[in-house]
Amino acid sequence: MKNQPNRLQVDQAHAFAGSAIDRSRPLHFRLNGHVIEGFAGDTVLSAAIAAGFEAIGDMLDRPLGLTERFAPPVAPISLYRDRQQALPMARLPALDGIDLRTIPGGRSGRDMRTIASRLAYGPPRSLALRLAPGRSLMAPWIDIPPRETVSGDVIVIGGGIAGMTAAVEAARAGARVILIERRTHLGGNALLFGRTENEETPEHAISRLRAEIAASDAITLLLSAEAFALDGHRVRAHVISIVDGLAHGDVIAFEAPRIVLSTGAIERLPLFPGNRLPGIIGTAEAFHLAEAFGLWSGRTAAFATVSNPAYRVAMLAADAGIGVQRILDPRPRPQSRFLEFCKAYGITMAGGILPVGASLLEGRKHGLSLAVAVSLDDYARMEEPVAAQRVVVCGGWQPELSLWHMGGGSSAWQVERSRINATQGPGHLALAGAAAGYLSTQACLESGRDAINFLFERPRSPVEETVIDPIYETPDAPTPVSHQAEASSAPCYLDDGTSLTVRPERRRPTMLQRLLRAREHAWRLAEQPRALSIADVAAGVQLGAIPAASAGLVARERAAGSADLIDSARQANEAPEPGPAPGSLVPAYLRGRFGGRAALWQIEAVEQRRLETGSLIFINSDQTDPRHAMGVVLRPLDGTGSALALVGKLGAAPGDGATLRDQTRPVPIRLVRPFDASPQAEILSQEPA
Amino acid sequence: MDAVRLDMAVFGSTPMAKLLAGILAGTHGKRVVLIGESDAAFRLTRGADLSVAPITRPETWALLSRTVPETLRLVARAGAKAGFARIDPIFYARGSLGSEALAHVRHAAAGFGHAAERIPSQALGQGYDGLLLRDAVLLVRPQLEPLLDTWLRSLGVLSLARSQTRVEMRPGGGVSIASESGMEAERAVLADDEAILAHMDASKLQRIAALADMTSILTEPAQPLASPFMMEIEEDAHLLQRASGSITAIALGSAPDAVSTVGRLLARQQHLRRAGQVTFTRLIPRDGAPLVGRVADGPLILAGLGLFGAFLSPAIGRWICGSASPNEEAWFAAHRPGRNFTNSSVAEVMSARAIEAAA
């Protein structure tokens, strides 16, 4: 497949053939003018990756990897200017003949420079989007008002095995269920984690549950649909549908008295400079792209992991013909049932080693150089860098709690596992699966059932996570954190999502800064001007920027839903009209200012001029201190050249002179007459407060 | 082991609470414990500290004319000069009530030497009337807080995290603090709303103040506003724009109401995403004016000081320690919680929504 350099061959059987694609049905479409070839079942993103695209563009002078969590929206060329037509690359099925453009735009495949580069160096690897640090890359559809509202009895968000189980259990209980899954197929990450002995295999569980869902009239399944906001009992989701060969996106609101959040876990990004360069990918995403779409970028790979499933992925990649150079693990003596298989494949493994930086290979070579170091207790030493065309990383698993927080749920930092776990939440919300902190197949299945038992107030049984003795399966280590980088290094991102929060670089102060004793500006997460993912917050705890005790509070504050404020205001009621003038002429903040017997007077300037509200009145022009004012102008009396004033002068009589100060300028005035004693007039008689 | 005996326990996490704790310890030689949080570096801002505000009462302007320079000298001596900035804030309103109030504020401020200018509606939006006060001082909380914390340590002020400290208020205004050996402070000062709500009887508060939801919203970077600080006084909402361009907007109401308000105030931006939000509770004094003093036999409370509270801290410290000037004494006496709220002689500008909440 000449035009799909990242599509694995299937000339021999292996697990990465691409379960979601049909290789007998090729298709092609255009993306930014590039012709992309793919297969039925591909998404636009998977086909683009197959074609060789690995980078989205440059950010902070370094290329940024193109991933499922960070891919630009696209729109048909003919509808490009309409934000409402934007669609996500990762959820949009690839359709034959469509002509798409990314938002923002990238360098066109029809551009002469691109054509020349392709001829000289092969297909482009970057979409070359024009990225800017201040520019939001959030999905434009989250601002679109819902097209309709759909009601059900139970909403299940997330179609992994926990969510599928919850949907099936709820349907068995007689509920109408809406199951929302962002991928084009069900199953979540269950296949990645495999199974332990005596468990139902994830393959069997997925197959069984898919069949039950398909057979149930009570379950409405929405694939390629992503829930992005939760408010009370109302979920907003962006749903993609294909009508007459064209893709459409709609925002639909779903309402139900009970909601299950089986939103999975975010894979933590190890913290080192260059951790989002093209070619660096998370284990779960690498597995998903390979298993579902038969994709693997490059022919050599290195792994840097704190979690055992990466060893299984390495083994499967080796099976598929990938040259796995090394597996690096900061755990000193990791043990896993997969390690023995990796040893049998001849894969070099090293414990006590963590990644400390990555850079692109120089020149036009495709690949990365991963700087690594031994780190054991107090001992640290740099090792020879590892070069590979792809680096698969895993920093552990953080339950995805964004919707939980939006829905009013709380969370807290769990020290033992270096992650944020859910604590209390509203009674109509239940977590299941990896979102609830479970990773094993059996526990995820049980937690899906338990979520429904909780919501329906049925007897519950404790969910048992399968824990293998650490002698045989080393528990995950905390996400590795390399030392702070020098300014010349590539950025170290806290997460691989859209927040683009970067760990600050250590800069040597300039001579001027040293002379001025300028203080280095401390890094503060409160000042990061983007919504933070829960993985950003977890990284913030590990970096010491957030006290562990505050992690839950911060995570909840920064999971704001990110909807456009201006659009939200427009969709809400019109601005209330300013209230009418009060019945009393004298506002409360003027009471008592000028003594107990202040009265309303009509006043005028000696030389006719407009007298301004708030101007202070003094007994004579020598007085300037506002505390010694004897009155104040309440408002001009239009058409009369005079004003209504509140005056506190004892024995005041018509014709009495005074001085008004127009801010600081003295203006001679006289009292004309007490203000008419009809309903509007008042003589204020105040007792001292 | 005998309990550690202290003079003052100041409860609060705001710059005002920290400045007050430092003044009581450093200027007045008191043994002080501060019970609060230092979270400006990672939590969303829930307030602002500005040396000016929509104040109509000349006595308050007079007090500030002395205490603002005092506070700045104190901050500089504390090594915290990097924690404040000079700006020209704008106060604005759309209706006749608000416009009138702004006119009164402008003349009162000008009477104390502030450069106060009207802003035309073209700069603010159709129908808006505005007031610009030049050369005000804004405390930059994320930068100021660590500097104040260092200063407090140098003064020997003991700091305890509120979330991890158990206390028991005692009749007479003192407090017992659970610690290894136990601590007793003769006087407790509740210096922010969170502390007041946590340690005051709700029934005692009800007469003097209403509880209202406030929401703080952080936005993504936005187009520059007319001023780094803007306050719409009828909506009881203020906008604080940082160097990054992101805006902290704090408005009265729960999240949906506040989003609606802030969205309208920022309508000129066309599109603007949220980066975070938090809803918290604020005390609204029944007459819109500060509340300073003890409620019945309880601790001393400082509430309703709004934007300028931090800049009154030198005077508050003197008053607590019995060395206030006659004018300061008169001001604090007039703002005691036991005052007449119906015919209040210290009532201040209140938004219609605040009036409704406080009614």
Description:
- The complex is a heterodimer of chains A (689) and B (359).
- With 689 residues, chain A is an alpha/beta fold.
- Chain A is built from 14 helices and 36 strands.
- The longest helix of chain A has 15 residues, at 441-455.
- Chain B is of the alpha/beta class and 359 residues long.
- Chain B has 11 helices and 18 strands.
- Chain B has helices at residues 15-26, 58-77, 96-110, 121-124, 141-154, 193-199, 202-206, 255-265, 313-320, 326-334, 352-358; strands at residues 4-11, 32-36, 84-87, 90-93, 116-119, 129-133, 136-139, 158-161, 167-169, 175-177, 183-190, 209-219, 229-232, 237-241, 247-252, 274-285, 291-294, 300-303.
- In chain B, strands 1, 2, 8, 9, 10, 11, 17 and 18 form an 8-stranded mixed sheet that branches. An 8-stranded mixed sheet of chain B has the order 5-6-4-13-14-15-12-16, sandwiched between helices. In chain B, strands 3-7 form a two-stranded antiparallel sheet.
- In chain B, a hairpin with a 5-residue loop joins strand 10 and strand 11.
- In chain B, helix 1 (15-26) runs parallel beside helix 5 (141-154) and helix 1 crosses helix 9.
- The model of chain B has no long low-confidence stretch (mean pLDDT 94).
- Chains A and B meet through helix 13, helix 14 and strand 33 of A and helix 2, helix 3, helix 5, strand 12 and helix 8 of B.
The quaternary state of the protein chains shown equals heterodimer
**Average pLDDT of chain B, to the nearest integer?**
94
Biggest beta sheet summary of chain B: 8 strands, mixed
Structural class by secondary-structure content of chain B? alpha/beta
Biggest β-sheet: strands ordered side by side in the sheet of chain A = 31-34-33-32-35-36
The rough form of chain A would be described as: elongated
Backbone shape of chain B: globular
The total of helices of chain A stands at 14
CATH 4th-level superfamily of the largest domain in chain A: Aminomethyltransferase beta-barrel domains
Q: What radius of gyration of chain A results from the CA coordinates?
A: 33 Å
The CATH topology name of the largest domain in chain A reads Elongation Factor Tu (Ef-tu), domain 3
Strand content of chain B: 25-35%
Most extensive interface between two protein chains, with residue counts: A-B, 72 and 82 residues
Beta-strand percentage of chain A? Answer: 25-35%
**Fraction of residues in H or I helices of chain B:** 25-40%
Query: How many strands in all of chain B?
Result: 18
